[in-house]
């Protein structure tokens, strides 16, 4: 059984009315094809971005672990833990990384986490010539007394999740009977409940405790980042700026500027912790782990929102992230940064809109804007590090979340929304498949090829 980083158990079923087993069977589509919101018919294939029958718990979206990457650090760590559990007698290991794991594994500390997890008798090979079955493919071989015990293929599909020998490793049930925002909102309207209440009814007891723990970890990542100084690890020699930016914010006299700089400093703080290999929370990935923590810290400490308000918002954020992962991808190696920071911006926008008491329609609109205006965003980390442009990009997206939540409160009063959240998820998935490999977490294109490692903007 896969050893997962999430510490709380996932609900084994839907316990609360009105989600009886019969209701679930009635509301699920059972054919092998589904019609998307845009009217296209696609086969049900899960990770390929099609509309599936149900969804797993939102607990799978929020997981704690070491940075800097959920697909390149947390996923490989989980793969190593799986192999250690499967072969406790092994005294040596061989790991072969392919695709994006090989191209950016050094900058993402993939080899470091594998050696730390499996032990010093671990040989890691970066296979740049092989043809991977997926951009994040690895093979781990267990050895004892020089003899091979077993070789297992792992695919890190994003958010720390794995496929093992072509089979999804998650052993958790699909507890959600719906897998599109449209279907969820129809159900909520029929039952006269809100999106956060829908999450409560599906998830059952234990969700609040789980998300309370997640919120604590998010807040801790911001606090620790604000206190840290110095240079981030790696050849870029990038300076931490969160603490100084926070001090500048406190020295401002313009209230609007203070709020903007404070929020940005919090996003820098959590993202810098991630880049240093610190303990962070996937939201939905580690590459985008600065956005939700920054918003929670800011609205809790600077805007006097209650923890209960933000907890409601976090539930809806998890639902939004779940919909994106189910119907598209949250992996930068598959969808570019639109799948990471774009997804996080959608989640954060929905979270703040919900916490502010907006309607489900307004919450959906906030989420839709958060993702729509990141469509086509590339993943081109300089030097393979989750630093440039990742850290600053988290801060920019956090600021956009506030703008989206502000706009969503008013714009539906003056116009009919033609673009749904489901439309944008579908568009993001199609766009991600069209993006070239060089712009999807390979460091072979974009900023990664025009900015030399270790140089500033003047080339020094």
TrEMBL record:
<dbReference type="GO" id="GO:0051539">
    <property type="term" value="F:4 iron, 4 sulfur cluster binding"/>
</dbReference>
<keyword id="KW-0004">4Fe-4S</keyword>
<feature type="domain" description="Serine dehydratase beta chain">
    <location>
        <begin position="57"/>
        <end position="116"/>
    </location>
</feature>
<dbReference type="GO" id="GO:0046872">
    <property type="term" value="F:metal ion binding"/>
</dbReference>
<dbReference type="Pfam" id="PF03313">
    <property type="entry name" value="SDH_alpha"/>
</dbReference>
<dbReference type="InterPro" id="IPR029009">
    <property type="entry name" value="ASB_dom_sf"/>
</dbReference>
<keyword id="KW-0312">Gluconeogenesis</keyword>
<dbReference type="InterPro" id="IPR005130">
    <property type="entry name" value="Ser_deHydtase-like_asu"/>
</dbReference>
<dbReference type="Pfam" id="PF03315">
    <property type="entry name" value="SDH_beta"/>
</dbReference>
<keyword id="KW-0408">Iron</keyword>
<comment type="pathway">
    <text>Carbohydrate biosynthesis; gluconeogenesis.</text>
</comment>
<keyword id="KW-0479">Metal-binding</keyword>
<keyword id="KW-0411">Iron-sulfur</keyword>
<dbReference type="GO" id="GO:0003941">
    <property type="term" value="F:L-serine ammonia-lyase activity"/>
</dbReference>
<feature type="domain" description="Serine dehydratase-like alpha subunit">
    <location>
        <begin position="208"/>
        <end position="448"/>
    </location>
</feature>
<protein>
    <recommendedName>
        <fullName>L-serine ammonia-lyase</fullName>
        <ecNumber>4.3.1.17</ecNumber>
    </recommendedName>
</protein>
<dbReference type="InterPro" id="IPR005131">
    <property type="entry name" value="Ser_deHydtase_bsu"/>
</dbReference>
<dbReference type="GO" id="GO:0006094">
    <property type="term" value="P:gluconeogenesis"/>
</dbReference>
<dbReference type="InterPro" id="IPR051318">
    <property type="entry name" value="Fe-S_L-Ser"/>
</dbReference>
<keyword id="KW-0456">Lyase</keyword>
<comment type="similarity">
    <text>Belongs to the iron-sulfur dependent L-serine dehydratase family.</text>
</comment>
